[in-house]
Every structure is written in structure tokens, then in C-alpha cells.
Amino acid sequence: MSEDTFRSVEIERTSLGKYVVRNVRGGSLSMGSGEEGSFTPVELLLAAIGGCTSIDVDHITSRRAEPTRFSVKVTGDKIRDETGNRMQNLTVEFTVAFPEGADGDKAREALPRSMQQSHDRLCTVSRTVELGTPVSIVEAAGTTSD
Questions:
Q1: Which residues lie closer than 8 Å to 128 by C-beta, 6 or more apart?
Q2: How far is 113 from 125, CA to CA, in rounded Å?
Q3: Of the candidates 29, 31, 54, 28, the residue with the CA atom closest to the CA atom of residue 126
Q4: What does the pLDDT look like over 22-48, one tens digit per residue?
Q5: Is the pLDDT of residue 1 over 60?
Q6: With helix as H, strand as E and coil as C, how does the chain read?
């Protein structure tokens, strides 16, 4: 993989069921089983899907007009069946408003198209989920003892 395509995060355990996720730019967030304000991994998946699509739609529509409201709700059902745990019925719901006038009209007109473009080709996260990508889980060399 080239440096332009490689992405990574590191996760450090802080206590039982509590972790800090860090990126290479110094950002961090709490992750865990949902106690004390931490995000669960499933919530982070929903946030990644919605965040990716939000960024796409925002960049496209905001070139025409600054939104007066821009919120996104991402929902889904966590199920357990014979194939194991997974999410289904994932939905990304946009609530977006633009000011009155010609620029607002242009942004409103671009909104459905931008949402479709994000879904069909731009959003790396939802495209990966929809197309399915194998996940390899490996143990790093020398990690079994200090």
C-alpha cells in the first residue's frame, strides 16, 4: 500500500472494557461498552457511515449555499442469528435546510444528487460496508508476554 492510500488507528486499553482510539493526527476518542459516555464500536460504525456521507453532501451543497440546518441521523438494527452478530436495516437520514433565494435553491436542487453520489461512489465507509471487504485478524509477533 502506498502512503496515500494507507489509513490506520491505534486502540489502547485503559481498563476492562474501556479504550482510547487515536489517529496519526493526534485525535482521540473513548470507546467501550457504552458506560460513562464512551461510544460502542457499533455506534462508531454508524457514526463513520453518517460522517462520511455528511462530509460528501456538505462539500457539494455548501458550494452553493451555507446550510441553515444540517443534521444526520443514522440508525440500524443489531441482530444475532445463525451467521452471528451484525447490523441490518442501516439508514442515513438527512435533515438539511438552506436559506431562501437563488443560492439556497441551487443547494436544495443539488441535495438529492449529492446524497446519491455519496451512496453510489464517494463515501468510502458505506461503499466498503455495502460491497463487503474481508477483515483479517492477526496477532503481532512477540505480543504474548512482556
A1: none
A2: 19
A3: 54
A4: 999 999 999 999 888 889 999 999 999
A5: no
A6: CCCCCCCCCEEEEEECCEEEEECCCCCEEEEECCHHHCECHHHHHHHHHHHHHHHHHHHHHHCCCCCCEEEEEEEEEEEEECCEEEEEEEEEEEEEECCCCHHHHHHHHHHHHHHHHHHHHHCHHHHHHHHCCCCCCCCCCCCCCC
The model's pTM = 0.91
pLDDT in tens, 102-141: 999 999 999 999 999 999 999 999 999 999 999 999 999 8
Instruction: Name the amino acid, one letter, at 145.
Output: S
d(CA 29, CA 23): 9
Between CA 56 and CA 105, with CA 67 as vertex, the angle to 5 degrees is: 95
Average pLDDT, the chain: 95
124: left (phi over 0), alpha (psi -120 to 50) or beta: alpha
